[in-house]
Amino acid sequence: MPDPGPKETLTAGQARRIALAAQGLSGARPQAPAGARQLLRTIERLGVVQIDSVNVVSRTHYLPLFSRLGAYPRPLLDELAWGRKPTLFEYWAHEASLLPPATQPLLRWRMADAAEGVGIWGGIARFLREHPQLVERTLEEIRAHGPRAASDFDWGQKKREKWWGWNEPKRALEGLFWTGRLTTATRRSSFERVYGLPEKALPKAVVEAPTPPREEAQRGLLRIAARAMGIATERDLRDYFRMPVAETRARLAELVEADELIPAAVKGWREPAFLHPEARRPRKATGTALLSPFDNLIWFRERTERLFGLRYRIEIYTPAEKRTHGYYVLPFLEGEAITARVDLKADRKEGVLIVQHAHAEPDATAQTPHILAVELRLMSEWLGLGDVRVVPRGDLAERLADALT
């Protein structure tokens, strides 16, 4: 993309505050428990919320809303996402994600790519093409009997090495999901996806909405990403919805030409940036939040390091003896800095939130353990746990334990 040159120059601090404001993390949370309208408004602001099944603390899709809204009722999100009349839909957007239904038409080009086997979708398209009878039988089962999970199919149980060892009905269901011919109708208590027909599961207005041209849909996704991040590089914007490189560059040039993005330079950033014209520019940020490893603010690790000077890696798949900060580590946002990291585990049997490791970051202050203690108590209550227990591991553990007592 030709470099139009920056129209604005920002300091690193200004960029950080813009990013926090765009993500709804720059100020105090609402005092009253959030209702459905606030949850939907927050998800619309973020554009997308990543789903993950790891339940060490809480499944990750619940956590970004807690970080921004405080102790909201978790069943409310279940109802919005997978209830009788869902007001969100599920698709592969950043990763597996929850999104506002209005975004569905903007992702149909990706569904078409999956059907045609473009890029990473080659295996999916090939499987569906090579198993037409299986595909039709799977669809007919759902047309005849309504939404079905993979465990409801008692035929074709042969395992395969590819696609995580899924059996053939599961592979057909997932392929049909990725190509948009099926969608998630609900999820069961085991977090098992239940597949349904889009025309039955999605709002009528969404199903009947015209499919925008590929270029317009991609511009639409980049608009959502730019609004959600406030200030971002090309790589940041591309990562938000996992967009193709060349097409992202072309669409960004078009948005700049239309004055929908402002070219900017941020001191200390090596790459050019793009500023959303409506981005808020607070003079300070005062929010506090424990951040899921998959929170929108930090999920792109390169951006996290650029914004906060924090090199953050999730260590779930790292052998225990080689971990630096723990198994399921949540960074702690305090104002404009990441001041600590805590490795948390919800011990539901004992009714305790366990801090397995606690580490301070360079921006931590004498007040950090006390502010973090308040946040941990709030999280423990929200999770229905009674106490917070600190294991004496990490350079912040002793001070945090003292603050909690």
Please, could you describe this protein's structure?
- Helices cover 39% and strands 17% of the residues.
- With 405 residues, the protein is α+β, with helices and mostly antiparallel strands.
- The strands form four sheets. It has a five-stranded mixed beta sheet. It has a four-stranded mixed beta sheet with strand order 1-9-10-8. Strands 2-4-3 form a three-stranded antiparallel beta sheet.
- Helix 6 crosses helix 8 (168-178), helix 11 packs across helix 13 and helix 15 (368-382) crosses helix 16.
- The chain starts with 7 loop residues before the first strand and ends with a helix.
Radius of gyration: 22 Å
**Widest sheet: strand order?**
11-12-13-14-15
Average residue-wise pLDDT: 94
Major sheet? 5 strands, mixed
Euclidean distance between termini CA atoms: 56 Å
Class from helix and strand fractions: alpha+beta
How many β strands by DSSP? 15
Put simply, the count of helices is 16
Shape: globular
Low-confidence stretches: none
Strand content: 15-25%
Helix coverage percent:
25-40%
Lay out the secondary structure.
Layout (H helix, E strand, L loop, with lengths): L7 E3 L1 H11 L13 H11 L2 E2 L12 H7 L4 H9 L6 E4 L3 E4 L8 H9 L5 H9 L1 H14 L2 E2 L18 H11 L4 E5 L5 E4 L1 H4 L2 H4 L6 H16 L1 E3 H7 L4 H13 L4 E5 L6 E3 L12 E3 L10 H8 L20 E6 L2 E11 L4 E9 L7 H15 L4 E4 L6 H8 L1
Parallel strand pairs: 1-9, 14-15
Antiparallel strand pairs: 2-4, 3-4, 5-7, 6-7, 8-10, 9-10, 11-12, 12-13, 13-14
Helix pairs in contact: 6-8, 7-8, 11-13, 15-16
